[in-house]
Amino acid sequence: MPVYLFPDSKLDFCKTDLFAFCRLFLQHEELLAVFKKKFKDVPVDQLAKSPELENHASQVMSTLDEAIHSLNNLNFFFELLYTIGVTHRDIAGFRPEYFWRIEQPFLDAVKETLGERYTHNMEQIYQVTIKFIIDTLYKGYTKGAVK
Ligand code: HEM
């Protein structure tokens, strides 16, 4: 499934993003531990390469993509991210500060994907945008539907 970051440029983000996000979970033992708890049937040594983890990476990217495309419709933007923030409350071992672990890998993935089109200006826009997205997820988790 291709992910579109800009309406006018279709970027095949999938390969880099999945790779980057699966790597993220491998590097952080405490993130992987959340998946270990959730997917008890998956042997620990296979979790890293599991469809469950890959599926989540793809859900994260689709969410970020949708959020970026909803910046012109803030009601939808908040609704989307608050809801996802709230669903993470049901995940044993999850902590809301874990959302922030996505920030740098996301920026790296965008940089890698855009190549020379990743200008300084673009970098600043993405830095602000990802902070806004994660802050909203965090608020969704901690405050629920309170806007
Ligand atoms: C920007 C950050 C993140 C986004 C946008 C995101 C997005 C999502 C979405 C859309 C779902 C599916 C929710 C549903 O079906 O109701 C999900 C599920 C889940 N997320 Fe996240 N997530 C993020 C970060 C994390 C982190 C850091 C962890 C672990 C430490 C995590 C663990 C999980 C787990 C265990 C599930 C359940 C998977 C399943 O049941 O198949 N998420 N996430």
TrEMBL record:
In this chain the Globin domain maps to: 1-142
What domain of life is recorded for the organism? Eukaryota
Q: Which UniProt keywords apply?
A: Heme, Iron, Metal-binding, Oxygen transport, Transport
Q: Tell me which SUPFAM superfamilies the record gives.
A: Globin-like
Family assignment from sequence similarity: Belongs to the globin family.
The protein, known as: Neuroglobin-like
Species for this entry: Priapulus caudatus
Instruction: Give the encoding gene's name.
Output: LOC106811755
